[in-house]
Design brief:
There is one protein chain. It is built from 18 helices and 14 strands. The longest helix has 36 residues. The strands form 3 sheets. A 5-stranded mixed β-sheet has the order 1-5-4-3-2. Helices cover 50% and strands 17% of the residues.
Length: 556
């Protein structure tokens, strides 16, 4: 018995209990699936009928002309499999208009010319359906067991695909963001290309919160790809599917795909964790670069595994991803597990984005160096865009799956020399420090987007603090004594280019209150504080003051 088959009206009519039955209407609908059988004698049947139900009735609803057509339409709208009517108990025939209605909707109408025992019919059909369901579950259990054996024996996805093909008896498809796809058996090249294109456009960046895990892609009128994404760490890294006929029953096939997708996810994770055991060379290379032990660019690129370019250049981005554990008392083992999860996800995302990379985990920080060859379709800006997406995915995973773990990320300037990694890492640390201490920059991850803070972070505290005191000290001291918020008022006034209305709105104060504060500012600082050179110094000092204050608050 095939596991993917379903029982139809045609199959049911062949059962011995239907030997004396006659198909009175709906001959074109004998391929309708039968999922269950039950008796209904009430007129309002819609709430009690599910798709594929075969209804048994003595025809009480036919005794009154009013509503009998609506009764049949309720069954049709509910997608019932068909209706069986017994003659001799309540009625002796079916009106011609109902026969025509059933034919028009290809709705099977079966009659028993003489009374029958409905209990025998339900017992027979239910036993058939339940036995088939039992066989299906046994088959799935066997498939699951064999699937587990194959995934334990190797990380080769082809063994899993061959097993799926054996059970489904359908062409099987596997598309991955990190490795070449597989087709069992091979499909025409144009079909393969169409599937690759659909995967890249519709599946690879699937929002799993808004989408079902069951996906359909119509290849042509006779072929549909039924597909299931392979999800790891909340990301789609591949998809497994099979080619079926549009009208084929797929419930059993969906279950096979679900089992297979979970096995593929386990293989993907295992492969990535195995790679973590092979990163010693990467760690050594990163350490050598950080310590300045490699001076020749060609040597650095060769050790990274990059081909040496005759024309063109590589773009390199170096950065740090830091994992902050805010839950007190967390065990070291739990922390290490969280770090490994982030590391595996990061490595998988870099691979998914086709970025050559070096990764090293040290304590709660991951050092990253990515490389992308520049060509017509790949530029420096696209490297930054890919990294932005990766950081976003890592942060999203941590917020959803790791309890009270915050991700901080920073990347230095994008350079065309790998030996510039030490400078990139220094800049990356500055990005993380500024994003932590300056609220308006908390979503900035790249050094080149820090603006004036590039210079402020480069200046030593021994210079910056006196600079702040020289230009804002009188206001800071006055605020400390009188709590008048003059520093905040000056900041809002300058941010709004001297607009008193906008500054008052930003501060949530009455305009007269602002006027009083501005008078005090002029009294303490002199009337020239809005002159260009003085204003530039004040704006710089305000930024430096806020950065220093927030840094000190963070450290405390």
């Amino acid at each position: 018995m095939r596991n993917d088959r379903v029982f139809t009206i045609k199959d049911i009519l062949a059962r011995p209990v239907f030997a004396k039955a006659r198909l009175a209407a709906g001959k074109e609908g004998t391929s309708r699936q039968v999922g269950w059988v039950h008796v209904l004698e009430i007129t309002n049947v819609s709430p009690f009928v599910s798709p594929h139900d075969l209804i048994l009735s003595t025809g009480l609803w036919l005794q009154s002309e009013e509503g009998r057509e609506e009764y049949l339409l309720q069954l049709i709208r509910s997608e019932a499999a068909g209706l069986c009517v017994e003659f001799g108990t309540s009625i002796h025939g079916i009106p011609e208009e109902l026969i025509e209605l059933a034919d028009r909707h290809q709705f099977p109408l079966i009659v028993f010319e003489q009374p029958v025992r409905f209990v025998e019919i339900t017992q027979d059909i239910h036993a058939l359906l339940i036995n088939h369901q039992h066989q299906l579950l046994k088959s799935l259990e066997t498939y699951s067991r064999q699937l587990q054996q194959r995934t334990l024996q190797s990380t080769d996805m082809s063994a899993v695909l061959n097993l799926l093909h054996e059970y489904a008896a359908k062409p099987v498809v596997y598309i991955s963001s990190m490795e070449p796809g597989s087709f069992v058996p091979e499909l025409p090249s144009e079909t393969q290309q169409a599937i690759y294109t659909w995967y890249e456009q519709e599946v690879e960046h699937l929002d799993l919160n808004d989408s079902d895990t069951e996906l359909w892609f119509h290849l042509d009128e006779e072929q549909v790809l039924l597909c299931h994404p392979v999800v790891c760490f909340g990301q789609v890294f591949s998809a497994v599917g099979m080619v079926v006929h549009p009208s084929a029953p797929v419930e059993y096939l969906k279950l096979l795909l679900d089992y297979t997708a979970k096995a593929a996810a386990a293989l993907t994770l295992r492969s990535q964790f195995l790679e973590e055991k092979m990163v010693r060379n990467q760690n050594e290379l990163i350490q050598d670069l950080m310590n300045g032990n490699i001076l020749q660019e060609e040597q650095a690129q060769t050790r990274m595994g990059l081909r040496l370019l005759v024309k063109g250049q590589y773009w390199f981005a170096g950065g740090v991803i830091e994992m902050e554990h805010r839950l007190k008392g967390i065990g070291r083992e739990r922390m290490e597990t969280n770090h490994q999860d982030i590391l595996v996800l990061l490595r998988s995302l870099l691979k998914k984005n086709n970025l050559a990379s070096l990764i090293m985990l040290k304590n709660n920080q991951v050092y990253v160096c990515c490389a992308k060859e520049e060509n017509k379709t790949s530029t420096r800006n696209q490297l930054v865009k890919s990294l932005e997406g990766i950081i976003s995915d890592v942060k999203r995973f941590a917020s959803r799956n790791l309890k009270q773990v915050t991700i901080h990320a920073g990347f230095g300037k994008v350079r065309n020399r790998l030996t510039g990694l030490p400078d990139s890492l220094r800049e990356a640390y500055q990005v993380i420090e500024v994003s932590r201490s300056v609220d308006r920059l908390k979503h900035i991850h790249f050094y080149e987007r820090m603006g004036i803070y590039q210079m402020l972070k480069a200046l030593p505290q021994s210079f910056l603090q006196p600079f702040v005191n020289d230009h804002l000290g009188v206001l800071i001291d006055y605020d400390r004594t009188h709590h008048l918020r003059l520093v905040e008022t000056l900041d809002a006034f300058l941010q709004n280019f001297g607009s008193k209305r906008d500054a008052a709105a930003q501060l949530f104060i009455h305009r007269q209150t602002l006027y009083n504060r501005l008078e005090k500012l002029e009294e303490l600082m002199g009337p020239d504080f809005m002159d260009q050179e003085r204003r530039i110094c004040l704006e710089m000092a305000l930024l430096a003051h806020a950065m220093i204050e927030e840094e000190q608050e963070f450290l405390s």
